[in-house]
Design goal:
Distance between the termini of chain B: 42 Å
Shape of chain A: globular
CATH topology of the largest domain in chain A: D-Maltodextrin-Binding Protein, domain 2
Distance between the termini of chain A: 78 Å
Number of helices of chain A: 13
Structural class of chain A: alpha/beta
Radius of gyration of chain B: 31 Å
Strand content of chain A: 15-25%
CATH class of the largest domain in chain B: Mainly Alpha
Strand content of chain B: 5-15%
Helix content of chain A: 40-55%
CATH superfamily of the largest domain in chain A: Periplasmic binding protein-like II
Radius of gyration of chain A: 23 Å
Largest sheet of chain B: 3 strands, antiparallel
Number of domains of chain A: 2
Oligomer: heterodimer
CATH class of the largest domain in chain A: Alpha Beta
CATH superfamily of the largest domain in chain B: MetI-like
CATH architecture of the largest domain in chain B: Orthogonal Bundle
Number of helices of chain B: 11
Number of strands of chain B: 6
Number of strands of chain A: 12
Amino acid sequence: MNLNFLAKAAAVSAAVLAMTSGSAFAQATAQPFTIQIDGSSTVFPLSEAVAEGFQRQTQGRVRVTVGESGTGGGFRKFCRGEIHISGASRPIRTSEMATCAAAGIQYVEIPVAFDGLTVVVNPSNPIRSMTVAELRRIWEPAAQGRVTNYRQVNPSFPDMAMQLYGAGSASGTFDYFTEAVNGTARASRTDYTPTEDDNVTVQGVANNAGGLGYFGLAYYEENRSRLCGLAIDNGNGPVEPSVANVTNGTYAPLSRPIFIYVNAAALRRPQVAQFVQHYVNNAGASAARVGYVPLPAAAYATYLQRAQRRQVGTAFGGRQAIGITIEQLIARRLVMTPTSSD
Amino acid sequence: MTVSAEPAQDITAHPKGLKFRRFKDASFVLWGVIATFVGLGSLAALVGQLVHDGGHRLTLDFLMSFPSSDPAEAGIISAWVGSILVILTTAFIAIPVGVLAGIYLEEYAPKNIVTSAIEIAVNNLAGVPSIIFGLLAVGLFVQAFALGQTILTAGLTLALLILPVVIVTTREAVRSVPQEMRQAALAVGATRWQATQHHVLPYALPGVVTGVIIGISRAIGETAPLILIGGLTFVAFLPITRPGDSKFEVIGAVDEYGAPVTPEASESVRIAQDGVVVLPDYSEMPVRAGQVVDLPHGSTVQSVADWGDAVASWSPTSWLGSEFTVMPIQMFNWTSRPQAEFLEIAAAAGIVLLAITLLLNGMAIWLRYRLRKSIKW
């Protein structure tokens, strides 16, 4: 081993590098067509399952990649035209609609499943249900540092200190929960343990008698033995968090649709059109498998048509809709400009 | 010369405080051993935990399968291939650039305010959080240079990240070569490059290799900057495989935009040229020009020729322009999934990542050993 060997190695690597970087630039436009999906980590398991099935059925001739840079991160890439499909655990926001409009990007909004947010407590906690008002008393910004014991929420609750776990502020789950419970999106007390990893909440609530947290139904279904999901009373009596109650629309206001947004121009490509068709046709089965709640068959038929006709726009006008049923959602008009908040 | 008149000291007598000094000596050994075992012990605990959680999932199938939404079928082939390709790219860029910069700064650069500024900057860069490099890479490589979210971008980003480490250790290694070596070479008429090439570098190499090992080991575990530049989570193809040699091209029924017709209901279509009809269940039906076929709801009509856009231009290095995932990103995803089985395969992936790191380090240590053996002062 001497320097000659290393000099040669260096020369070879330099040559390889020059060759590779040269051809890499040439290749930039000449890659095989890849359908690029990014966005919400909530939607990720569903997109992954669908993409997997699609690649199997097309025998790998169309490549599909799925990233998870979050609902907001996904829309940033989507509105720059960097990806074809963005997964979202909340509807597109007014500001994101403006960014997309400025870049000339139109989108087809497709709800693909329901997710039920579940409020969980430790099994040793005797509380089995809460009203939305009680949840607000716990989570509203005014509760910060003040509401620390279950008895302060309702005198019939046990005298026990609360330990709160919740979603990090970058997630669509945080946006939805705060709006559904506190009335204003992103308004929440901040003296709780925030996390983007729902398994942290599972651990925290399972190991603390006074623990209380919220996350998607899938995490509750997987951890039923260690956690207790609270029935939510929205004025019509307590409703258990379950697939059946999310499907029939009674688990309100904590069930929400999750979406994919498809670039309308990309949808003209047969690969993308075929993938979206596959997505809508298989979302129901895949949703059940990865822990979400399928939409009714009629809804999928409607959304398949929407994709095929490339009907652009959002049914939300830039604002979240709390506790909306799928029938109400289908009946809404699609718009490309934000609805004025009145 | 007379012997000084000091009284002879009894060197066998215990001087004052000797016991305490011996105690200090012994306790240093004790604390040293404890400190060593804190490191070794936590590594052993970590590996033990990983093996306990994921050892039983570590099969050949796991290594050779693509990720899947079914944890029983999921594997890490796209992740470990991606990790290795990204690390190779990183090494190809960071090693030559870092070593050259280190040598220049130590052997050639005049000692002035500019060099001092560069030195301070390099030392500080070594402590910058990796996510900052990710932010830089998004702006520079992904957007300004339009390299996309590719292996090349990832390699460049990680190369930037480990450059300071490589530069600093190269400089230290070069500095440790005795000044006399250079002076002797220069005295017999060698140029500065000859002195560096024949005398300084061979002796500095083991130190340089150590720096490279540290840098590469840091790069392979990085997640944050790669997620930022668009490292993906689900990639079910290998960047090095040849893409399918067929292409979607609509030749039959198209609408007014040139998009393929996906009939709302069963429709009769006259086929424009030889091709294939893809039926809603993805089975294919070859068709010939002029043929009239009934297309069921959801069919598309495509040419039979080729699907991938880039058949002819595939090259042995096109992987640099490919999308990618890496081991830490795959693990990160699996640890945040609700199903406990995903936590098991995340642990199994952790074992593989440790093994890859160990393998790379082993190679570097072997190389350093061979280089050291060739040194004859």
